Structure formats: structure tokens, C-alpha cells
Amino acid sequence: MTKIRAPFEPAPWPRRLRSQEWYGGTSRDNIYHRGWLKNQGYPHDLFDGRPVIGILNTWSDLAPCNGHLRELAEKVKAGVWEAGGFPLEVPVFSASENTYRPTAMMYRNLAAMAVEETIRAQPIDGVVLMVGCDKTTPSLLMGAASVDLPAITVTGGPMLNGWFRNERVGSGTALWQMSEAIKAGTMTQAEFLEAEQAMSRSSGTCNTMGTASTMASMAEALGMALSGNAAIPAVDSRRRVMAQLTGRRIVQMVKDDLKPSDILTREAFENAIRTNGAIGGSTNAVVHLLALAGRVGIDLTLDDWDRLGRDVPTIVNLMPSGKYLMEEFFYAGGLPVVLKRLGEAGMLHKDALTVSGESVWDEVKDVRNWNEDVILPTEKALTAAGGIAVLKGNLAPSGAVLKPSAASPALMVHRGRAVVFEDIDDYKRKINDPDLDIDETCIMVLKNCGPRGYPGMAEVGNMGLPPKVLKKGITDMVRISDARMSGTAYGTVVLHTTPEAAAGGPLAIVRDGDFIELDVPNRRLHLDVAEQEIAARLAAWQNRSARPAGGYAMLYHDHVTGADTGADFDFLRGCRGNAVPKDSH
Ligand code: FES
């Protein structure tokens, strides 16, 4: 029999890595861990102490936005091999936006928990987080942050531009527009079906500045992805180059022991918040970054979002706030151009460290803007104050959010009569009723759609307008809820109202006919009902949402926190580290 064996040299690495607790020795346990992996044909010298890199892949046939990540993982592996690491691809929970019910958000924390345990329990020295669809990015970042081993993100990249009848079709954004057009009678169902394929021309994530593109941008702005990662289209050859470079880089990060806790500093979060304002990013970034900050012990608050984003002009002219799509953002120079602009405006912590080992400023200072219609000059910004507006008042004591760049300027100060929907089913029952007592001056109020109420805080806050209003040519009304909204959506929509209705927040006691005042410039959300009456209603309030009888839904119900702290589980906040668990063999 041929002896296949390379010399077992002492580890060439600067220190003994944690994977050696499994692989580095001659004990029965070492042989058990190593020997079984050898059934895949790995030579013995791969266990010599080199970094074992877990490539955490959210590929799934049921996560089409991440459907190309298996192919992309091969490029990551190539990079890891080149740099002298040992890559092992690991499938992890993939909370896909477009299939999970009641909402993918309900599973973000489950995915994060699974990722955390997957990393800690296994012989892994560093991780590449392969993500894309909305919840996959925050869930893997959260899980990795709670372990604090070297980690780097590579996203799958956006789909190519959608085109329908010579018009750009933005993922999600077009869906909302067209479904309203059908209700208004200006589009047929047959045309809608024809547009469906045009919307999704290639592999990749939503091509608007929706939540997926926003979170890819957040990962880059936080310093957790290589510079330029966010905007490269999924099918562009440069996406594969990025994957390979990411694979190379993680090996060096392990050698340097460069961990999330070194990168995810308060300065990094402040950079990300300002970036979100500049790109007109999704309101979902608020809950995800608050949750991520909680994992690394950064005391980030809703007030930080308002304070830091207030003066940031939205300069990225992408749907849903603007005109273009991610493909054009990439051609214009992508996120590095935006970060450079923030730096020039004194709105960037330039020294913040990134996964490259360089500062964010070193990464972006020499880039150029190649299209000033896509990345706008400040004087042509879509909105001068583009950050997330955080509203407070007796209707939202702990806060609510609104995205000014996606809202109607004429509605930013508005007083209207409430038309109340007790939950999403109530809304669906009533909204198409021609006898519904509503007009465009009213404020639509949706309750029981928060983290605990829905459950999962579904993206239903941008509830469609009633057909009788749409038929007048009206396209926006003030809407208030404790829900979230898709990052691809738009409108004067107040979201994440906290405390949520299902937790007994004041939203729960709003009644038809009450008057509500929205004053975005003064950050005020006020229920114009006498204090005594509010107190009496709250005292009489009864919780409508039943506690689930068991399973994950019960865990979720019992432990999810409010939107103002990121809707994480109370017991998952913080970093639990990467100490090697005991061996039981
Ligand atoms: Fe997956 Fe938009 S639905 S990225």
C-alpha cells in the first residue's frame, strides 16, 4: 500500500491556534477529530497548526438571493489555500427574506444563536461570513461578534439592473409601485406578471438600496468587509475576485489576531450610522446595528441615530429614495466614494480600523466619483438631512423612526384623524372596503405588528393605501405602526413605535377618530388625547396577543427586546468569547 504522508512539521504559526485543541496532538481525542475529517482526503500536514477557516455559508435553494454563494465559496476557499490556511465550508441557518413566515426577522436571532454556537463548538480559528439577503448579514455578524474570533464578511452582491419596457425595475420598490398601480387601475395583472421576470435578471440580492444593499454597506462602513465589497454585482467577475481576496485576508487576520472587538468600536458604529444617512439606507439597519452593538458592549441608542444622521445629506441617488440601482452605484465607485465624501465633510472617524488592517480613510482617500448623477454633489443631495429621524412623544415614549429621504416633504408636519387597524388581518379586512371612513388627510395606524405582537416585527408598516384614495392619484399618506418596513419601500411611514402595542405601549390605545400630530423637524409624535383619558385607556388595556404554547415561538415571545434595543434576545446580548469547550470523547 502506498504511504501517503507529508512530514509533520511544527506549526509555522506565531502561536498555537484554538483548532489545535482538536487537531494538534496524538491523543485519542485528537485522532478522533482529525481522523474522521481525513475521510474527505485531507493530507496530514493540513493539521500542522495552520489556521482553520470556517466559511459560514448561507446558501440555500430557498434563499434565492444567496443562491450563488456555493460557487462563490470556492473562490473564498482558493484564497484561503493560497494564504496557507485550511478552509472548511460550513452551512449555517439562512433566514431568507422572501420565504420565511411569519417574517424572516423572527429568525434573525435564531440564526445568530446557531452561528455563534457553530463557531465556538468547532475547530475554527477564523470565519468568513458569506451573506447577502437581508437578515443573513446581521445574523452572522451578531453571532460572530459574540464569539470574537477573527471574522470577515463577503456579501453575494446585488442582482443586475431590472428593466421593463425600457424603465429600471428596482427589486421590491417596483413591487410596491405596481401593486398600488393595479389597485388604482393603471396597470393590468398581465403586465404585472410580465414585469415579474424583468425584476430579477440575475443571481444576487435586491438591486435597490433596500435592506440587503444597506446591510452590505453597513458591513463595509463598520470595517467588517474589504473596501468596495458592497456594490459589486453578484455576477460580475470582480465579485469572485473579492471573494478570493477575502479568503486570503482572513488567514492574515488570524495570524494578526484581528478580531471583531478590535473593529466594532463606537467610532465604527458612528461611521455606519452616518453612512446610512448618506446612502438613504433602510430603516432596518437601525434594529440590526443596535442589536450588533449590544453584542460587543457598545452602548448605542436611538438617540445616536438621530444625532449622528441629522446633518448627513443623502447623496446616493438610488431607489427607493432616488432613481438608479446598485449596478450603477458600483460603476460610479460604490461605497468608498461615499465614505470619502463623509471624511471630507468631517463626518467620518478616519482612523477606524477595518478588516484590511488599514484605517477606513487609508482605504478610501484616493477613490474617485465616476458618475455625479448617481453619487450626487452635496448641493444636489436628495435630502439635506438624510439620516433616520427618531421621533418621540406620548405615542412613542421610547422612540419611533422615519426615513426622511423616502417620505413626502409635504407630510413631514401633519395632523390627522386616526384610522385604526388592530392588527394586520384587520387591515386586510377593511382596506379595500369602499365604505371605510378614510381620506388622504387621515393617519393610518396599525397595531400589534412589533417584535412580540406579529410576532417578529414584520415588514408591513408601509401598508398600502386604500383604493379610493389611490384612485384620486394620491400616492402617500402618513402611516404609523410598531412594524418595520422593507428597505425597498417608501412613504411617510413611522415605524418601530416603542413600546409596541403588544407590550402595552400607547399605540395600543389609539382609537378611530383620535387626532395625531407628526412633526418630523421637531422629532415629535403626539397623540392629541387628554392625559387622563390616555391613562384610563392604558389601565383598561388587555393584551390581545397569546403567548405561544411552546417551541421557538415561545422562546422568541419571552425574550425578544423592544425595537429600541434592536429586538435581540435579552440573553444573547454581550460577547461570550471563544474559549474552547470541554471535550467529551
Ligand atoms: Fe433577499 Fe431582497 S429579498 S435581498
Automatic annotation (TrEMBL):
A Pfam family recorded for this sequence: ILV_EDD_C
EC number: 4.2.1.9
GO molecular function: dihydroxy-acid dehydratase activity
Record keywords: Iron, Iron-sulfur, Lyase, Metal-binding
InterPro entries to which the protein is assigned, alphabetical: Dihydro-acid_dehy_C, ILV_EDD_C, ILV_EDD_N, IlvD/EDD_N, Sugar_Degrad_Dehydratases
Top-level taxonomic group: Bacteria
Top EC class of this enzyme: lyase
Residues of the Dihydroxy-acid/6-phosphogluconate dehydratase N-terminal domain: 50-361
Domain Dihydroxy-acid/6-phosphogluconate dehydratase C-terminal: from-to ranges: 373-567
Coiled-coil boundaries: none
Homology family: Belongs to the IlvD/Edd family.
Protein's name in the database: L-arabinonate dehydratase
Organism this protein belongs to: Mesorhizobium retamae
Lineage: Bacteria, Pseudomonadati, Pseudomonadota, Alphaproteobacteria, Hyphomicrobiales
